[in-house]
Design a protein that fits this description.
Number of helices: 2
Distance between the termini: 20 Å
CATH class: Alpha Beta
Radius of gyration: 13 Å
Number of domains: 1
Helix content: 40-55%
CATH architecture: 3-Layer(aba) Sandwich
Strand order of the largest sheet: 2-1-3-4
Strand content: 15-25%
Number of strands: 4
Length: about 80
Amino acid sequence: MTLGTPNTRKLHVVTHGCQMNVYDSARMADLLAPLGYTTVDAPEGADMVIMNTCHIRERAADKVFSALGRLRVLKEETGGRMMI
């Protein structure tokens, strides 16, 4: 799997938390679109992964730590993709 070219970067956004987090995630994707990022459904096809979470709720935090572990493995397997 290769990274997208500068004009076709791929973005995967994961959102945990409240409706405001959903709005913020959509806004981040909108801001990155002019830079050539299009959203994809899975982190495996992404050049950048954004994890937007609520740190107030313990369950959301647990989901993020679990996802970070999976993304770390993916990052190592694919040669160091960008991750936020």
